[in-house]
Every structure is written in C-alpha cells, then in structure tokens.
Write a structure and sequence with these properties.
Number of strands: 4
Strand content: 15-25%
Order of helices and strands: HEEEHEH
CATH class: Alpha Beta
Distance between the termini: 27 Å
Shape: globular
CATH topology: Ribosomal Protein S5, domain 2
CATH architecture: 2-Layer Sandwich
Number of helices: 3
Length: 111
C-alpha cells in the first residue's frame, strides 16, 4: 500500500465505520463508504485483544500484503476499513488469504 492509500484522519476512520456498510465473516469485518475521490483508501484496525504489539504489527503487514495482491477486487469509488477478529491468529496464511478473498467478493457483489 502506498501512503496516499491509507486512511490517516481519525474523523474519516470513524465516518467510514459509522456511516458505511459492513460485511463480515469469522475473521474479518470490512466497512465501506463511498468516496469523493476516485482512489480507494484503506484503514486497518487490530484490537489489543489479538496479542501484543509484535503480533498486531505482523497481522497488519499481512493484511497490507493481501490488499496489495488483490487490488483488482476493490472498487475505486469506496474507502475501506478492515477490522481483524481474534480468531484470525489461529489460521495458516493460505486460509487467511482464502477467507479474505471470499469476503471481498461478497463485498463487491453487494448491490
């Protein structure tokens, strides 16, 4: 992810969560809200319940990689917040990828 693709403002982060639509499975929650720009922005939230700082940072790095590898599945007119559930840490990386991609397809097929 590039720096211009990251949601940095707390107000925008909260706006996406409170006003956006959300989709979830057992491992992720994805919020999306229509953007005024034609570039998607992404925010990643990992709770302290998911582990110590090292574990949370590793999780965020993995999510950034999943986003970069699957940019074609994201619509360009939305901003996204991706929240990670606690059960995420029990999966292998291949299962994480599979669950993330299946949830993205669900997000994009929604009308």
């Amino acid at each position: 992810m590039k720096k211009y693709e990251v949601v940095k403002q707390n107000s925008l982060f909260n706006e996406i969560i409170h006003k956006g639509k959300f989709f979830y499975n057992n491992f992720f929650i994805i919020y999306k809200l229509e953007s005024t720009e034609y570039k998607p922005k992404f925010g990643i939230a990992v709770s302290k319940k998911n582990g110590n700082a090292v574990t949370r940072n590793k999780t965020k790095r993995q999510i950034r990689t999943l986003i970069d590898n699957n940019k074609n599945l994201f619509s360009k007119k939305y901003n996204y917040i991706i929240m990670i559930k606690r059960a995420y840490s029990n999966l292998t990386y291949a299962e994480k990828c599979e669950n993330f991609i299946s949830l993205l397809r669900k997000v994009n097929n929604e009308k």
